C-alpha cells in the first residue's frame, strides 16, 4: 500500500551549508547497505512535519529545526520513491544531538558536495540528492 514518507536532508548549517548527512540502511534485507535520507512513513493522525520530528528522534536521537521543502516533481511536491511510495523532503539542521545510528541504520556519514555521489543511494534518492546539491550547495 503506497504511503507518504517524510525525510530530512540534514545539513551542517542551514545558513551556510557545506555537508549533508547520509544514513546507511540496516533493514529490511532488500534495502540494507543502501544510503538514504533519514525519515520514515507518516502514521495515521500525524502531520508530516511532526512525523519527521518523531522519526529523527527515534532513528538518530536528534532534535531539529526546519529549513525549506526540497520540492519534488509531483503536483503535491512529493518525490516518487521505492515501491510506489511518495516522499516529502525538507532541509533541516540539528539543534540537539549528536546524531547516532540508533534505529534502522548502521552508519552515518557527513558528505561534502563533491562526495555526494560517493555512496550507493537508494535508486529513487539519486535525483533528490542532485536537487539538494543544486538548491543548497549552488
Ligand atoms: N526513510 C527513507 N525511506 C526512503 C528513502 N528513499 C526511498 O525510496 N525510501 C523508501 C524505503 C521504504 O520503502 C520507504 C520508507 O520506509 P521506512 O522503513 O523508512 O519507514 P518506517 O521507518 O516508518 O518503517 P515501517 O513503519 O515501514 O516499518 O521509503 C529515503 O531517502 N528515506
TrEMBL record:
SUPFAM superfamilies assigned: Nudix (SSF55811)
Location of the Nudix hydrolase domain: 1-136
Swiss-Prot/TrEMBL cofactor(s): Mg(2+)
Listed EC numbers: 3.6.1.55
Keyword Transport: no
Entry annotated with the keyword Hydrolase: yes
Keywords: DNA damage, DNA repair, DNA replication, Hydrolase, Magnesium, Metal-binding, Mutator protein
GO MF assignments: 8-oxo-7,8-dihydrodeoxyguanosine triphosphate pyrophosphatase activity; 8-oxo-7,8-dihydroguanosine triphosphate pyrophosphatase activity; 8-oxo-dGDP phosphatase activity; 8-oxo-GDP phosphatase activity; metal ion binding
GO terms, biological process: DNA repair; DNA replication
Reactions that this protein is recorded to catalyse: 8-oxo-dGTP + H2O = 8-oxo-dGMP + diphosphate + H(+)
One Pfam family from the record: NUDIX
Similarity comment: family membership: Belongs to the Nudix hydrolase family.
Name recorded for this polypeptide: 8-oxo-dGTP diphosphatase
